[in-house]
Design brief:
Blueprint: E1 21-27, E2 30-36, H1 39-48, E3 53-54, H2 57-60, E4 67-71, H3 78-87, E5 91-93, E6 101-107, E7 109-110, E8 121-122, H4 124-135, H5 140-160, E9 169-171, H6 183-195, E10 198-200, E11 203-204, H7 217-224, E12 228-229, E13 238-246, H8 250-261, E14 266-274
Parallel strand pairs: 6-14, 9-10, 9-13, 13-14
Antiparallel strand pairs: 1-2, 2-4, 3-4, 5-6, 7-8, 11-12
Length: 278
């Protein structure tokens, strides 16, 4: 269980949130799981353990807890406890269209009061990504080293997540230059290899396309419409889209749409960091 000041109401950040706290209390032979966090946590818990049922809003009123789930079991099962422990450390993201759930290992920056956001330090996870994408762009050995550290972190999170751990195939998100394999695509392939599942390279219509971060939201939506395709059927598959940086989620959502088009049953997303941009 994580600690928090129960006198302060939970603030839901539309960019993403961590689970701030949880506990259990006995109730009529079963138990109630009390949560302080976003609705995405509730959705993941109930997907992993369908025996949980939400209680009425009147029960969850007050600043300490945002949600209460009741189970007939006397105690929270171990997979749920492991999941909750994970969700106190990673960032639950509002899922882009066609994605069942999405996580980021961390934020990109560490906010500091009174400091210009451009001068905020990177989080350790963001520093790995920044080094792999930019600092060691032309140094294959060092880029591989930091990439493997990132993959270790990502696979550790996947292993602890009772839903993501059952993904059957990994998809990448192609970089803006399809003539080169991006850092994110290499990372996705390594995650698949570590997990012992298939990697499928997503195809892109345009050989070169503007970087999503340089486009307005409406431009991203229009440009990425039908931009990606998955070159084989995914009927009944549980798909994990892996990437390095999550900005708006538009690219991940577009890849998810392509996966659904070829029969994917479930689509999940995981990335290294979530940018601070709203």
């Amino acid at each position: 269980m994580s600690g928090f000041d129960g006198s302060i109401p939970f603030y839901r950040d539309p960019r993403g949130n961590r689970l701030e706290g949880w506990t259990t209390t006995s109730a009529g032979g079963g138990h109630i799981l009390w949560l302080r966090g976003p609705i995405e946590v509730v959705q993941q818990v109930t997907a992993l353990a369908p025996e949980y049922r939400p209680l009425s809003d009147s029960v969850t009123a007050g600043p300490a807890w945002t949600h209460a789930l009741q189970s007939p079991s006397p105690a929270a099962p171990e997979p749920v406890r492991v999941l909750l422990g994970l969700l106190t450390g990673v960032v639950c993201l509002p899922s882009p269209p066609n994605i069942d759930l999405a996580l980021a290992l961390d934020w990109y920056k560490k906010p500091e009061e009174g400091i210009d956001p451009y001068d905020w330090d990177n989080t350790p996870t963001a520093q790995l990504i920044s080094s792999g994408k930019y600092r060691y762009k032309n140094n294959d050995d060092m880029q591989s080293r930091v990439g493997l550290q990132l993959v270790d972190l990502m696979c550790g999170a996947i292993e602890r997540h009772g839903i993501l751990a059952h993904a059957t195939v990994v998809l990448d998100i192609p970089g803006h230059d399809s003539t080169r394999v991006s850092f994110g695509s290499r990372m996705a392939a390594t995650v698949a290899r570590r997990r012992g599942i298939s990697i499928i390279r997503v195809a892109t219509k345009s050989q070169f396309r503007p970087e999503a971060k340089n486009l307005e939201e409406s431009e991203r939506l229009n440009f990425l419409d039908d931009q990606f395709s998955v070159p084989q059927r995914l009927d009944g598959q549980r798909v994990l889209i892996a990437d390095d940086v999550f900005r708006s989620g538009t690219s991940m959502g577009a890849v998810a749409s392509a996966a659904r088009d070829v029969g994917a049953a479930n689509v999940y997303g995981i990335c290294g960091v979530r940018t601070m941009r709203r």
